[in-house]
Design a protein that fits this description.
Blueprint (H helix, E strand, L loop, with lengths): L1 E6 L5 H14 L12 E5 L3 H10 L3 E3 L2 E6 L14 H9 L3 E7 L15 H32 L3 H18 L27 E6 L9 H9 L3 E5 L1 H7 L4 H11 L5 H12 L2 E6 L5 E8 L4 H8 L1 H5 L1 E8 H7 L2 H7 L3 E3 L9 E7 L2
Parallel strand pairs: 1-4, 1-5, 3-9, 5-6, 6-7
Antiparallel strand pairs: 2-4, 8-9, 10-11, 10-12
Helix pairs in contact: 1-7, 2-12, 4-5, 12-13
The structure holds adenosine-5'-triphosphate (ATP) and magnesium ion.
């Protein structure tokens, strides 16, 4: 899962990113040691996984991760290639969701590219750039599709209608997420609009506050997005301290929970994924994620392509049933552990053991 951090220049993106990087590097189960400098890998903590690992006697706990990409500031005109515009937009294109950092703090020492702090206007600037980029992409694609549609190609006809609807929406300032792609459009061939991606607004507020300012909260609600508030600078400073000092400083500042936790959880929730687990005695306990509606066969593919290729059947038990039974044998006796085929639709919290050949 990849999340891109976007926002105006100087909004506080890199401060947030640096705090995330340190948090990731310090987490006990950080699975990668080398990664590009603009990517922070964060484990998505899950209390269920820890409990399963303890009961089953796993050798270690490996939580699934989420990648945050620091993307340079997006200025007005980026979609026309201003600044490093196109490169930034290409970076955003590869992500599954967007964290949009909005400057809300009033520290005069930090220059604002437009000369004044105005969260609503900043949000509009960024959203407009994303819309322009999508508009250009959709118009280009439409030119190509029109010919196929004229020839009577079913997929092309459906795609043409969808693109026209998208374009009409863009002209009215409507993001692509409000015009979902119909099933009969070839997903692999057509545009992947930036404005279809789910968004988490991060209001970068003055230190000591963790309330989302009303303008940001209302905007987020209007566009169907979520919002959290943090002080990027404080989070970056806190991440430099050891745990004890950080906790004391949080208390002094009156910030309850780690702002980073809220950002990671908030970003993760955007993706609407289900979590499943693999756990065994003396081996790793791991968490994994899948889109809702995916099957045991897809789950096997997440674990390993070889396991998917050799899929025979799956043993599935809900995490709480396994916990209650205290082990696989007891869960089998209790009838909560079931045998399932490849088409079994995975449920959130399933613990799976894939039996496979090879
Ligand atoms: N909540 C805050 N209060 C006060 N100062 C802050 C806050 N958040 C960030 N800053 C300061 O704002 C400046 C810009 O922050 P940062 O480098 O994170 O922005 P950026 O969005 O990455 O900018 P760019 O687009 O240039 O990459 C830094 O000096 C940082 O310490
Ligand atoms: Mg930066």
């Amino acid at each position: 899962m990849k999340v891109g951090i976007v926002g105006m220049p100087n909004a506080g993106k890199s401060s947030l990113f640096n705090a995330l990087t340190k948090a990731g590097a310090e987490a006990a189960n950080y699975p990668f040691t080398t990664i590009e400098p603009n990517v922070a890998v964060l484990p998505v903590g899950d209390d269920r996984l820890d409990r399963l690992a303890a009961v089953i006697g796993a050798s270690e706990v490996v939580a699934d991760t989420i990648d945050f990409h620091d993307i340079a500031g997006l200025v007005a005109g980026a979609s026309k290639g201003e600044g490093l515009g196109n490169k930034f937009l290409a970076n955003i294109r590869e992500t599954d969701a967007i964290v949009h950092v909005v400057r809300c703090h009033g520290d005069d020492g930090v220059i604002h590219p437009e000369g004044k702090v105005d969260p609503a206007s900043d949000i509009e600037t960024i959203e407009t750039e994303l819309l322009f980029a999508d508009l250009e992409g959709a118009e280009k694609r439409l030119e190509r599709v029109v010919r196929g549609a004229r020839g009577g190609d079913k997929a092309a006809i459906a795609e043409k209608a969808w693109l026209e609807e998208l374009i009409a929406g863009y002209h009215e300032g409507r993001a692509a997420r409000h015009t979902p792609m119909p099933d009969d459009v070839d997903r692999g061939q057509t545009v992947q609009p930036l404005t279809a991606k789910p968004v988490l607004f991060v209001a970068n507020v003055d230190e000591g506050s963790d309330e989302v300012p009303a303008v940001v909260a209302e905007h987020a609600e209007r566009v169907g997005a979520k919002a959290v508030a943090i002080s990027s600078r404080i989070e970056a400073e806190l991440s430099d301290l050891d745990e004890e000092d950080a906790a004391a400083m949080r208390e002094d500042l009156g910030i309850a929970e780690s702002g980073l936790t809220r950002v990671v959880k908030g970003a993760f929730d955007l993706l609407h994924l289900l979590t499943f687990f693999t756990v065994g005695q003396g081996v790793r306990a791991q968490s994994w994620h899948l889109e809702h509606g995916r099957t045991a066969w897809h789950a096997a593919g997440e674990i390993h392509t070889d396991i998917q290729k050799g899929f025979v059947r799956a043993e599935v038990v809900p995490w709480d049933a396994l916990l209650e039974a205290g082990g696989y044998g007891k869960a089998r006796e209790a009838g909560t552990l079931r045998l399932e085929g490849r088409d079994y639709v995975m449920q959130d919290g399933d613990v799976i053991t894939v039996k496979h050949t090879g």
